[in-house]
User: Fold these one by one.
Assistant:
Number 1:
Amino acid sequence: MKNRIAGHLLVECLIAQGVTHAFGVPGESYLAVLDGFHAHADRIHFITNRQEGGAAFMAEAQGKLTGRPGVCFVTRGPGATNASIGVHTAFQDSTPMVLFVGDVASEARDREAFQEMDFTAFFGPGTKGMAKRVERIDDARRIPEYVARAFATAMNGRPGPVVLVLPEDMLTQVVQAEPLPRVEPVQSWADPGALRQLRELLLVAHRPLVLAGGGGWTPQAAAALQRFAENWQLPVANTFRFQDTFDNHHPLYAGDVGLGINPALAQRVRESDLLIAIGPRLGEATTGGYTLIEAPLPRQKLVHIHASAEELGRVFQPTLAICATMNAAARSLEVLSAPPELPWTQWAAACHADQVANQAVSNGGLALPGPIDLPAIIHTLQRHLPADAVLTNGAGNFASWLHRFYRYTGLARGHKTQLAPTNGAMGYGVPAGIAASILTGRTVLTIAGDGDFLMNGQELATAAQHGAKTIVLLVNNSSFGTIRMHQEREYPAHESGSRLVNPDFCALARAYGYAAERVETTEGFEPALERALAAASGAVIELVVDVELITTRSTLSAIRDRALQAS
């Protein structure tokens, strides 16, 4: 073993785990690690961000895209608290991630030293915390052990984030230690008896419905899920913001179960006599506030398949609980023999027909306020974006148009195509899109609201610095639209705090090195998109929409009613 600085050893441990990119904002607390990135710049790249929240979102997106922990480095105190939004996103989205936090020197610990804080108390491991594990490395010789354990913890069971705290003086020690081998996630297989019981439940069902989503999916697992659905002719709905788990073009696709759910699909969930939930934890957004599936005892027979035993029975008491990772579960399900005739083929066809009608309806003949037809905009994206394009978004009313009208290519085709926060974090879309461009080189389209964009729009500077190219569709209604919508429902005519006075977004984008143009009509969008796709740099298309488009209660109700009639 050779002598090496601990900070360099840490970087070598990341390389051993297959990490090619780490995101972060540099801090004086981990200068030795930054020097390690410099020493190994031919094998690993440190992406310099402009705010720790953006860095953490990029690492979370990295975890979603690769299935292995995304890596983020921040300094203590303000750096760690800024990054916590990405950690919380990774926890609720079940995304593997490791956050490294530079800390005060050991001799200054527990004195409320400069920027000191209790990271275990703050990130609080557990179901009500933000991380699966929080650990401090005090002995530099144990860096390989801690890093390997962090990667294993982040990937195994329910995937999620791990926080490793790095005392500044520990990182400058000279040690003799070697990186440990690459950690692979453990596969947990379903109990054969439980699989037989699942088959028995299917054989007596008349209206089965699969709910697919959550973390831990690979292209191989998604392909096996598709074969299971085809063998049994099962309608499949994807859960909230995991819309690429099952191919949206497939004749068994039933839609997405989340915020703004198709009312016809919501009724299908209620009417189902057998729900097979594969992967999701069945959170509030997916269950319609615990009404589509009632807690603790659902009206429907519920088969819940999840990688973590702690999730099974935690909120819902299932008819059958199966603890298995997605790769193992899907491969077991695809060989589950189906009878030659099934009684629910018409039910499956009707579920898909509901979804086709929901996506085909533009505005149902209703005159939408303003000159922008957002459903038509999304259909234009569908025509022009390549099948493997990555679409990202943060949080806001604007995202509901994308979720409803865009048909995501399924992960079974080999690529993840959706990056979106199930915890509803604003500001996610821009940094996630930049990370996707850096990591994959594929076409990336981000849709952001005006309020959402300004949460992390400064990361366009990161894109320019590191050669990333994204297209940002910026939906500008001069409002925090979701909050305005809720205000009009709860306190009509009492708008308060939700109105925005915005900068010149096109000038701002150009200052960051992006091309930019402003679009005020539906007809103007398609040529603007074509120019953005052909541009050498990234591009921002500012889409100016009427605030009433997403906040008028009568408009929203009318669109919903038209969709119901069409289905």
Note: The chain has a mean pLDDT of 93.
Number 2:
Amino acid sequence: MTEASELLPAEGTLAELPMAELLVRLDRAAFSGTLEVTASHRRNVVVLAAGHATKVRLAVPIEMLGRLLIEQGLVGAEQVESTAARQAAAGGRLGDLLVAAGAVDRAAIDRALADQLRRRLLRLFLLPAAGWRLVPETDLLTERGGAPQPLDLLAVLADGVRSSHSVDTLEGLMLEALAGRTATAAVGPDLGRLQLTPQEQSACRYLARGDWGATVFRAIPAEHRHALLVAAYCLHVTGQLRFSTTVARASVTPLPPVGWSPSVPPPATPAPRIAPSSVPPSRPEAEAPDAARAADDGSEPVAGPDREAEAQLLGAYERLGRQTYYELLGVPPDATPDALKAAYLERVKRCHPDRAVRLGLAQHRSKLEAIVLQVREAFETLSDPEARAKYDARLAGTTETTAEQVGEMIDRALAAERAYQMAVMFERQHRLDEAQQQADEALRLQPEQGEFLCMSLWLQAVRRPANAAVNDLVPGMTEAAGRVVSHERAQMQTARLLQRAGRSREALDYFRRVLRRNPQNVDAAREVRLVELRQSKQQAEPAGGGGLFGRLFGKKDK
């Protein structure tokens, strides 16, 4: 095995060494230590052991465990929120607390943690301008527990490339790799680790049938080009392509002239030798103007724009994201696989990007590409029975609020609660400026939460000089406390603020409110007792002779 020092520099950028290639090198070097990926001064951390990822911490907290469990229907949102609040107050791990409470079993937690690790690692593919550095043999996340099973880096490779690289980007990378040469796929054992889709596996078999060059990516229907490019790029970065110069090409079996599609099976016998001239020649787009390029169906281009087709195109584009997959394909929810395939092919033909040129709508080509991408996603999801069942379940339970929206709400709620608990901790440590920042962050995330506003206003008061007025804070404090009458800390903060503003009678009402809910609150009990003692002493003093002066100068009765 090549030494890690030979495979990996200490630092670099993802522009120079893309994430896919970096992960392959980490795998080949069996790297153990920490990978730091920094973008816009935000640091993401990946801990690895023997070339497998064990922990990932992102600069922006996403893919939270609670959200994943909710998405999978394993636990309710209320259960997650209440458990997260206990976690923030008393510590511990959310998964352990949920298991202890009987809300979910350990196996489900382990599966969710593995999914979380995978999703977070995939997020790093979306940081093309980031810099990275390696810290060998060092775990910079010692405070965090690792996933139950380390993650094979190659297992996320295809998914990361597929979700982060467009057709044009991948074609550019492959043209750079080919550099005028030809290639053939020498499929090795790493192929099984890549977790390719069936279409991408078929593309790999096609690329292994013989010698090919840059023309192969233009010799296939556009709807299959992305899958072919994903397969080719993954084979390239994992070292499963063999390159040869044009001179040596005659000694290599070329690809058949037919363009690849997912339905092309691997050949039962070796492909026949075909002269290189039979491979469809490359034609750079610059050689022919867009308006003169023929469409896939062979029809002639038109001179002017088709306004009716343009209106249909723009309408379809505007509806993206608001339609279900069934509506997008124009099929009923009980559509058969054959009906799905027919609808998919019809939609792709109608929305093919080359159609924009033929109809004089070249400026809308990107919109058609977006429509085709969504149609492909719909077809692939509904064609997979397991994926279709999950999608149908989501449709049945999220008619008003999508799963993504629910997840975002949960993430914001958990982040706000964490910020609030940090504010409480900092206040106890008399780190008032830091407490104020955390309280304001909680309030920003969830401005409707009364306890967050009470905390922010109380901290504003205690950060003022002891003799400074605080009356301007009272209206907002009492209004916020009225929203959370059962929140003990918010009611105590309101009482304290009223005390400081000289409104002791109103403060007493809040102290008593706290005691009614929690008779064990020592601070509230002391304040109520002091007020009651003062009142009883005033009632016991004799009229006209009470007080200190009455005792010192009053005459004794004879």
Note: The mean pLDDT is 77.
Number 3:
Amino acid sequence: MSNLRDIAMSVKAWPFEEARRVLKRYEQKPPEKGYVLFETGYGPSGLPHIGTFGEVARTTMVMRAFRLISDIPTKLICFSDDLDGMRKIPGNVPNAEGLQEHLQKPLTSVPDPFGKYESFGHHNNAMLRRFLDTFGFEYEFYSATEFYRSGQFDKILLRAAEKYDAIMEVMLASLREERRKTYSIFLPIHPQTGRVLYVPIKSVNADEGTITFHDEDGTEMTLPVTGGNVKLQWKPDFGARWAALGVDFEMYGKDHSTNTPIYDKICRILGHPAPEHFTYELFLDESGQKISKTSGNGVSIDEWLTYASTESLAYFMYQKPKTAKRMHFDVIPKAVDEYHQQLNAYEGQDETAQLNNPVFHIHGHNVPNSDMVVSFSMLLNLAAVANAEEKDQLWGFIKRYAPEADPETHPGLDKSAGFAVRYYNDFVKPQKTYRQPSELEREALLDLRSQFAEYDGPLDPEALQTIVFGCGRDRFDPLRDWFKAIYEVLLGASQGPRFGGFVALYGVEDTVKLIDDALSGKFLSS
């Protein structure tokens, strides 16, 4: 382990780079709280989504790397901001009209429109925990409501009252002039209506730990800052939560980056060092627009898992987190195949390469073997030419290519076959467009058909690829025009697999028939 730890201290994989930054905080002495704290936040106004998965998955990767380079215990907290007031009624809940009277109340004081939990906040928290548990994340769940009302936040709230002017100075510098006139870091929670009030604060008494303000009807009220009677505005809350918990690491999206200095300053004013933070780039949809929960663009977690495994999604999340990435359905096949390529490479790599391999950061030291004897992209093309409606239609071809494989011994391949059929029918089939070959292309395809018809060798992808290459080499310049013709005439797509490998899987005789059908115009009339 010591040798592996030495290697881990120099590898370039980003989770190790982040882990080393966290470890540097404790070069002189270990944390007084006894552990290093990693945190992720969740706004429970809606259901957890793919960004929630990415944030927890990536934080887990950093925590896993930290455990390899340090013996200091670690803890991951998922913190739900469920004391926030409900500012608008979600459009995707039942009984929405019954929520109107509960606007501005904390989410944990709003009735559950689904009728299953104590409140809407409790409902969404339960969804979050079920979501995280589905993926096997190790975490502790914290509720802001419980945190404020139980007194766990009291010490920091009293400290915020004491340092009120200093914190206000930080906040006011970031606000427009009109907003400055009414802004306060404290939001009272009305003792009768239970609503979160956005009202000016008349005075803050640090000695007594109270705030005085005018209610919306003009009545002067005084409340203690402790015991859940007030909450902090979201930016001060960020820094105060770091201080209260002793957070050592938190990551968040680029849209938070301009607020990072504010969070840090408030945390320090409250007497604690700011944590290490990691800002990741946001995901983009097919047209390059930022993915939004409200607009529903991009790919949801359920949609990804309809067409591919959790591990392929974790692989996608691992890749270049500081680079904006399109997250549309067409990225799924590439992510699946690259994930399995990395699995296949892992066993033969030295320790440095293994620690730089994405699959280590997904699985830790328990990296599984891949049973994908056929790539996902090849399964998609097989589904396309077979017009498959069920995965069993693919297994006849797979077993001819790899006789040792079956659904029981290759469960990952079996699941991928099902994913491939689903993906083909939903995305590939509607886009298939065949065309007639040119005279030169027809000549080359007839040559290919003739050589395949006479072929009596083994189903060797390289030998078959050599034949494909030979039929186009002297006819096409550039040669990629030949392969483009193969895909468009035979498969109805502008790109496709390495054709020799496809023939090995689909079968030489079946490929001869495929060429015959294409040249006869059968696909043009279908």
Note: DSSP finds 24 helices and twelve strands in the chain.
Number 4:
Amino acid sequence: MSQASAQKQDARASGGGINKPHRSLAAGTILEGRYQIQRVIGRGGMSTVYSARDLRFGQVERITAIKEMVDEDPDPGTRALRLVNFERESALLATIAHAAVPKIYDYFSQSGLVYLVIEYIDGSDLERGLMSRGRPYQEPDVIRWSLEIGSVLKMLHNFEPDPIIFRDLKPSNIMLRSSGQIALIDFGIARMFQGRQRGTMIGTEGYAPPEQYRGIADARGDIYALGATLHHLITNSDPRQEAPFTFHERPVRTLNPDVSEEFAAIVSKMVAYHPDQRFQTIEEVISETEELLYRRQRRDTELLGHPPPPHESDARPASLDEELPEQSVPQTTVFTGPVDSTPATAVGFQRRRASRKRRPRRRSERHEEVDDRVAWQLQTGDEVRGTARWDGARVTIGSYDRYLYALDPSEGTTIWKFPTGNGVVARPVRVGDLYVVGSEDSSVYGIDADSGALRWSCRTGRAVRSSAAVLDNTVFVGSDDGSIYALESLTGDIAWRSRLWGPVRSSPAIEGDNLIVGSDDGYLYCLDRDSGSTVWREPCGGPVRSIPAVSNGKVFVSSWYGIVTCFNITNGRRAWQQSLEADVASSPVIQGDHLILGVTDGALIGLNAKTGAQAWVARFANQITSTALAGRSTCYVGTIDGDCLAVNIATGEMAWKHRLGGPIVSSPILAGDVLVVGSIDGNIYGVSLTDDELADLTSQ
């Protein structure tokens, strides 16, 4: 981080006031017996920011940023009040869990000064980057950043018990990490507000909305500041150099005609002078921007002759009380007679048999790519993204070719396949003599396990990507319509339906009388299993699409933005929280004291399940979105590079890998004596295991 960039990470709320100079700490100074000062990286009117090494981590060089604040006010009462405010602010920041918010590690006072130890951001701020470029940023980059910033503001504006208004959003307060992700800095002026409570005017001229000069701060002020920031980034026109509140005189496309009309209209609405003419919530901004991206993706895919992507931006209900459109009212259809499923001979399946002979592998061979692991493969008509289910007799797995397949895992032959109206990514569940599975055609199906005939179907309001859970003949499943459904397994009738605040793509976990499930609204919900009423609801720092893992009275869950949290299952209190600094599409898996999950930067990570501390990190691929299958000592996981990996749970050491025919986003399962896993190449694979590996998986 350059010194100029680091200065932007320092507090800027002082407004450039002149204070008595304060002597900087010398390099090598040790604070609290732990933090060794390296150099000054930023300075403000009342504070200095240093880079420092955390000496507690003796084996690695862990660098932090330390903000030193001095208060030379002669009034001791004022100093005491500021210290209280500092401690309150530090405690508040420490509760914010988001990959785009720098983490707070520690705070303390020493020799009349106060110190805040925060995450060191390796990167530069967007204002510095814009000055270096000398030209506007590209629209795709600005749109991506706007969604990342919007996700932070959404979390802040919905913070409980009171919303947090940032109040000083601008390019210099937005850091672009070297990884390409955004981080918001300088929360020094963030405060908690109730509605339209009046406060002092704090902000930066050109970015602050007009009502903030009157001491009014609410969510619409942050929307204005975000719009002003986006206008600056996309036009390279600095609003501080223009007359205040004149964005209507400087439309985006007059300054940069390369910007699309759609995105220019979004920015224009954000910077409307009157708050009532802007977007009223940050959720509206996000929805409108996602809609823009969806339309572009749909147009591009149609030009290429591909089917359009599923529409996700309109999947969120406006409120808990909003009713579904008439055509989307959930309906159950019961079939009393047999319905023919498609025979296996309808498609020309391709199978490949490989040697099933097992041989023990020597330690020296464990890092080698092996070529004799595939026992069989079966070709479907499209991508296989879902995870299989093994019930002791057959394997069932869905494909984007709109079929659910039932297979014999010993040979890889098809027993039957059941047609749906769209792709099947959800994992089937066995309930008595039925399989229950959802489809992106918005329906949940009950299918005869022996024949593949349809018994019943229940239509929800949107696509069903959540995998069902079952207990006592009741099936629990989520839908993109923002609801979690409890269905009678024999008939498909709706026992209850609970509306959440976002699409439910997480798969529910059952623990006692509770149902634990996540939502795209960024919360984990604990619901009463019998009624669907909310027992507790806790934020997770981003959309929750993972399957919660339950162990020893704790529930573990990962959010899309890389926040992993351990909650007490009885009351929802956090036991610990960890940020992985990369997006997470996989679900956490608990094995003993280890929590294992993959991240989109290609790492497989082992955390201590009791504390959240990192035990090991091993990078094997470009991305890992597959959820691991854990044995006693070894876990198995797929990668976006097409490898099936075997990894030691205690150390992260790779035992072996086998390259399949395409990217793997589904999760391996054990079926008999093979691993069954799907691939985006359209194939379902059976991967052989050694006797020792089978024993490791079956000795749980």
Note: The longest strand covers residues 35-43.
